[in-house]
Amino acid sequence: MVCLTGATPVLADVRLDTWCIDPAKIEEKITPRTKAIMVVHMYGQPCDMDAILAIANRHNLSVIEDAAQAHGATYKGQVVGGIGDVGVFSFYGNKILTTGEGGMLVTNNERIAERARLLCNQAFEKERFVHNHVGFNYRMTNVQAAIGLAQCEKLAEKLARKREIASNYFALLGDHPDIQLPVAGNDCEPVFWMFGVLLKESFGQSMPKVREKLAAKGIETRAFFVPMHRQPVYQGSNGRWPNLCGEYPVSDVLGERGFYLPSGLDVTRDDQEWIVACLLECKR
Ligand SMILES: Cc1ncc(COP(=O)(O)O)c(C=O)c1O
Question: Can you give the pLDDT at residue 187?
Fold first, then answer.
C-alpha cells in the first residue's frame, strides 16, 4: 500500500525477542525525505512505542501503527492502534475481530480523518460525481459493520481465550532449550493472535521439515511471513518498490525458522498437549 501511494518503503529489521521492529534500526534509515514510521504489532505483540515515538518526535515524523493482528493488545495500558498518529486494523476472516473482509483506520487527527473519509468514498465531496481528487471504493457495507459491532461485544471473551491458549503453550513448552517462545516487551499485554515459535538451530530439524511432519499428523501450522526483502516481486528495481538496501539478518532467521502452532479459539487443552508432544517428537 505504501508503494501504491507513490511513497517508497524503507525497511528496518526486527528484534529477535519480540519479532517487532527494532527501534535501534530505525534512525539509521531516516533521511530528509522520510515522512512516517510505520510499525507492525507482530502476531499481537506490541512494539516498543516509547522508543518509536521518541525517534518520531526527534525527526518530526508521523507514526502509523499496523494493528491488523493486535486488536486489544496494550502498551503501558494504552490500546495499540491508538498510540501513534494513525492506527489500522484488519477485519479479514482470520483476524481476532472479523467482518469477513474489511478494516478500520483510527486517528485523533481531524485532518487525517477527513482525508481518509474522502478517499475511501471515491473522493466525493459536496457534489456527488464531481471529483477534485482520485479516490477509492474502500467503503464497508452496513451488513459488515453490523457483524463487526456484534463481534466487538465478544472481544473480551475472545482475547481471554487467545491468552488462555498462549498460557497453555507456555506451560507445555516451558523453557525448552531448543524452541524460542514469544517474548513480550516491557509493560506490554500481547494478545497472541497466533502463537508463534522459533526453532533454534539446536532443534536440529528445519522448520519446513517440522511443519511437514506435523501436517502428516493432521496438525496445520503456518510459516512466519516471508521477509519483505525476500519477496520475489520486489527483486530488481524499477524505482517503485521498497528500498531493499542493507541486511536484515533477524528477519531472515524468523523467515527461516519461525512458524505458528494451531491458535484457533476452539483448540482445546488436550489438543495442545498432543500438538506439543508431536512437535517435540519431531526433534528425533
Ligand atoms: C500485519 C498485517 N497488516 C496488514 C494486513 C492486511 O490486512 P487486510 O487483509 O485486511 O487488507 C494483514 C493481514 O491480512 C496483516 O497481518
Answer: 96
Q: Are 235 and 179 in contact (CB under 8 A)?
A: no
DSSP bridge partners of 78? 75
Residues of CATH 3.40.640.10 domain(s) within the chain? 3-155
User: Would you state the pLDDT for residue 239?
Assistant: 54
140 lines ligand 1 (CB under 6 A): no
Domain 3-155: assigned CATH number: 3.40.640.10
> How far does residue 61's CA lie from ligand 1's centre (Å)?
23
Distance 203 CA to ligand 1 centre (A): 31
Contacts of 153 (CB under 8 A, 6+ apart): none
250 Cα–ligand 1 center, Å: 21
C-alpha–C-alpha distance, residues 211 and 228, integer Å = 22
Cβ of 67 below 6 Å from ligand 1: no
Query: Which stretches in the chain have pLDDT values below 70?
Result: 237-240
Pocket test for ligand 1, best of 92, 138, 224 (most atoms within 8 A of CB): 92
CA distance linking residue 33 with residue 7, whole number of Å: 10
Q: What is the pLDDT of residue 242?
A: 82
CA separation, residue 167 to residues 24, 75, 79, 155, 256 (Å): 30, 19, 21, 18, 25
Which protein residue has the closest C-alpha to ligand 1 atom 2?
68
> In this structure, are residues 72 and 87 in contact, taking their beta carbons and an 8 Å threshold?
no
Say what the alpha-carbon torsion angle 187, 181, 266, 224 is, to the nearest 10 degrees.
100
Q: Which residues, in sequence order, are CB contacts of 154 under 8 Å at separation 6+?
A: none
Superfamily designation of domain 156-281: Aspartate Aminotransferase, domain 1 (3.90.1150.10)
Residue with cell 481471554: 160
pLDDT score of 245: 85
